[in-house]
Amino acid sequence: MKNVSKLLGAVALATSMLTAGVAVAQDPTFFRIGTGGAGGTYFPIGGTIANGISAPPGSRACDEGGQCGVPGLIAIAQSTTASVFNNAAVQNGELEAGLAAADVTRSMYLGEGKFEGKPHPKLRIVANLYPEDLHLVMPKGATISSLSDLEGKRVGIAQAGSGTQVAVLQMLEAWGVTRDNMEEAELNNSQSAERLADDQLDAYFYAAGWPVSAMVQLASTKGMSLHSFSEADLKKINEIIPAYIPSKIPGGIYEGVDQDVLTPAVSAMLVVSSDLSEELVYGITKAMWNSNTRKLLDNGHAKGKQITAETALDGVAALGVPLHPGAEKFYKEAGLLK
After folding, report:
1. pLDDT band for position 6 (cuts 50, 70, 90)
2. Least packed by Cβ within 10 Å: which of 54, 80, 234, 257?
3. Is residue 252 part of a domain?
4. Peptide bond preceding 211: is omega within 30 degrees of 0, i.e. cis?
5. In this structure, is residue 118 part of a structural domain?
């Protein structure tokens, strides 16, 4: 009987240990990705990335037709006010990751410009994603010769906490336009489009990957025009904000805007915290570039097709913000980084 009791006890202990092990393995890891407003590009792109890197506990294995993300990871795209908020939240541990403009990420990491004396040393790069084109939207048929024409106008400068607003205020100041001589409105993209349609704004700025859903709707209902910058103005903007480089919004992207629009653009980056483990970020980076996530990117927002492993490191070295060691490990293994 003593031997039987010992055997039963051993079985019970083994069962308990096995059950505990399974419980630990099945514990979910939540991963919050800060994006932007629902009417912009960050939110749908962030949602696609979240789907690609997730593999909730209990889900089918990748080779059995299930999700091909990080086992046990549940990634969630959260709507925010974009770049500045996302980087600050990553620094403070309120978000694990965020989408953010390259120029803002550099300034916040180093504590330069508007962020003088307030460095964000925990910011780390996972990937360059796609170019965000600056849209200067005006009512249908409206034109300006340069940014100086916006003096005295009602102008949407994007929402507080966005990289767009930081850059736009720098640009406008170079043409003599400031908060003191224009009627600025701090609004997200959807709000700005609604105000423009209701004749409550003369123009508004928004940097995002085209096509932007709120602008698609605006163009097809009320109509709109986009300001095409001169090459001289693009050069001037690049000198003021080196991260903003000359770009183009192709004609036909928005209804009624048939000609190519010359405009500055800045890269969107996926940023994480240095507090995240190398193992986790390695898994996330690997999941971002597998064939399953490739399908999600290609079949989602139009900008998804421009998000590739081959361009993931474009501009990163010159940015001055380090890669996360987990991402660096993946790119070296994939032969994309020496």
Report:
1. very low
2. 234
3. yes
4. yes
5. yes
Angle at 178 between CA 138 and CA 194, to 5 degrees: 30
Do 218 and 138 contact (CB within 8 A), yes or no?
Answer: no
Beta bridge partners of 266: 132
| Spatial distance between the Cα atoms of 65 and 63, rounded to a whole number of angstroms | 6
Consecutive H or E run containing 271: strand 261-273
CA angle 108, 320, 178 (to 5 degrees): 40
Q: Is residue 26 very low, low, confident or very high in pLDDT (cuts 50, 70, 90)?
A: low
Give the count of beta carbons closer than 10 Å to the beta carbon of residue 79: 17
Residue with tokens 């001055």: 320
> Do 124 and 272 belong together in one domain?
yes
**pLDDT one-digit tens code per residue, 27-72:** 899 999 999 988 889 999 999 999 999 999 999 989 888 889 999 9
Whole-structure pTM value: 0.82
Q: Do 246 and 296 fall into the same domain?
A: no
**Residue 19 domain-assigned (yes or no):** no
| 262 and 150 housed in the same domain | yes
Domain that holds residue 286: 28-129+268-333
Number of folded domains that form the chain? 2
Q: Tell me if 16 is assigned to some domain.
A: no
CA distance 55 to 63: 12
| Structure confidence at residue 18 (pLDDT) | 36
pLDDT band for position 3 (cuts 50, 70, 90): very low
Query: Is the distance from CB of 129 to CB of 99 less than 8 angstroms?
Result: yes
Rounded CA-CA distance 295/67 in Å is: 12
Q: Are residues 214 and 313 in the same domain?
A: no
Residue 180: half-sphere exposure toward Cβ, Cα within 13 Å: 2
Q: Are 212 and 61 in contact (CB under 8 A)?
A: no
Identify whether residues 250 and 277 lie together within a single domain.
no
In this structure, the answer to whether residues 125 and 273 fall within a common structural domain is yes
If asked whether residues 273 and 261 sit together in one domain, one would say no
Owner of token pair 């953010």? 100
